Amino acid sequence: MAKEFNSFKSFYPFYLSQHQDPVCRRLHYLGSTIIIIVLLNTLINQQWWQLFWLPVIGYGFAWIGHFVFEKNRPATFKYPLYSLMGDWVMFWQMLTRFFKKQS
């Protein structure tokens, strides 16, 4: 029986446990970065059709990471909202950790 989570705070440790492989985490980071670039480009150029690519990019990179490298089932299948939140929290944590190392 799968565990049920009552809060994002209780879900996030599980989310991180599903992202142990460094390649999987890097693919998530790459997908999130490209999403931001496409979103900004869409807003600047008002090419709204580009929004179609956001879920393809986000899920594409993440699912390759899970199925090929992590060898597990993405948490988004059971916990879509918490998983989306987890993607961005993990992205922020990786980004801030990178810039802390640079200074």
From TrEMBL:
Keyword Transmembrane helix annotated: yes
Keywords per UniProt: Membrane, Transmembrane, Transmembrane helix
Signal peptide: none
Listed transmembrane segments: 27-44, 51-69
One Pfam entry name: Mpo1-like
InterPro entries reported for this sequence: Mpo1-like
Transmembrane in keyword set: yes
Source superkingdom: Bacteria
Protein name listed in UniProt: DUF962 domain-containing protein
